[in-house]
Amino acid sequence: MAALLKTYGIIMLVTFAELAAGLGIINLAGYDTGSIVTVALIISVIDILPVLGTGTVLIPWGLYELISGRTVSGIMLLALFGIIETVRSLLEPKLISGRLKMHPFFTLAGVYAGGRLFGVWGIFIMPPAMMIFRQLHDSQ
Is the CB of residue 14 less than 8 Å from the CB of residue 1? Predict the structure, then answer.
């Protein structure tokens, strides 16, 4: 369980770094995104929750910018969302499977099934449970 929490901490840190860099670039382009560190921290905390994620903030924010006539800012926010989701979808199964010593496909399936069946806690419970069942199966 501790290894899984550490893994999600790493994922959260990577997301925070991506957000801080992306929002910094948007600020350099002349679009105010507020306090970069605070906004990046809040969004990265929201991202770790499976039901919400970065899209909960970045998609409406990007669409608002587009509708408000700030096209470049809106496109940059939506592109930032795409980059973060791509990195996370590649990184998460690899990190979790490495920590739990399971194939990334089964790890991803466990995270997804746990989230769907048990909500937030299922994401943290299902992969270790799968590992325990695998070890029990292998010992027989």
Answer: no
The whole-number average pLDDT for the span 63-81 is 94
Per-residue model confidence (pLDDT) at position 1: 60
How high is the pLDDT of residue 49?
76
Give the count of beta carbons closer than 10 Å to the beta carbon of residue 137. Answer: 8
Q: Looking at residue 50, what is its pLDDT?
A: 65
Burial 49-63 (b: 16+ CB within 10 A, else e): eeeebbbebbeebbe
The pLDDT assigned to 71 comes to 92
| C-alpha to C-alpha distance for 69 and 65, rounded to whole angstroms | 6
Encoded tokens for 44:
């990265």
**What is the C-alpha to C-alpha distance for residues 89 and 15, in angstroms, rounded to an integer?**
12
* CA within 13 Å, CB half, 4: 20
Number of other CB atoms surrounding residue 97 within 10 Å = 19
